[in-house]
What does this fold into?
Amino acid sequence: NLYLEENAESQNEKSRKVKYEKTESKNIECKNTASKNAEYKNSRITAIVLIITIMLMACIFSTLDNIVTYYHSKGIMDIGQYPRLLLAISGVVAGVLFDLKERKLMCLIMYSVTLLSTICMLVITMGEPFIIGLVVFYLSAGFFSVFFTTAFVNLSFEMKTPELWAGMGRATNNLCAALMGTVFFSLFNSTNMLSNSIVIIILFVFVSIFMAIYYGKNSKKSYVGESLESDDKKMEHFVQQFSLSKRECEVLETLLKSDKNVKEIAQELYISRAALYRHISNMNEKTDTKSREGLIKFYYQWEKSGKN
It folds into this structure.
């Protein structure tokens, strides 16, 4: 009778475990699908915000580009080839600075460069020396190129067609420069300094708004390759959260890894079945669960969500 009872208990344990694993697998699959859909939706919103941000920035930098080209073509100043060294240097410096602290400062640095370029446009509008605009343009252009390239490459990993989005930054910049550069240069080249200054300031305000939105969206994401917390660390947090004893921790780890019945688990831990049931009961009380299966399910759900 004892043998039949233990054998029946073992079969019931295995049956419940298989049923639980199938249910848990379906739940995880549904959650993963919902999570992916939410991520795609969030990524699409981020992409739209980023495109608008790059378009607004392109209006500023393409206007500076047109100013430099205009002065050179009129013979007011011979630019030559040496200023292009500033462009190369700024691109290298931008790559180094953007990578600081896992690119957390990239948006802030780019915003500062955009602010500097905006001030430069206002200064030139007021008739200050052209050399200021020349230097600022070549220094800021490298930062801008590295920014939109890096931003869209990072975004492409989260999109369904990464090969399309990886080069979207250059396409957006070129298209906006072709469509809006001449318009803004015409406004800039007019004699009304007040209206020019107002347009420049309004443009910068919109850049600030969309840059803030993009930064808010981007700061919630993790870049590709970011490491996840180890299982040992998660177990440590769980033990601390629910004040489990060392022995209870050992029992929980065994329950999670083993598909054996109660008797075999007790033998593996060198304790009696009564002691094993007592440890499980104590953990049920601490985690507000009702059974061994409930405890295991609760742990995996807590492990996934990171909260009780």
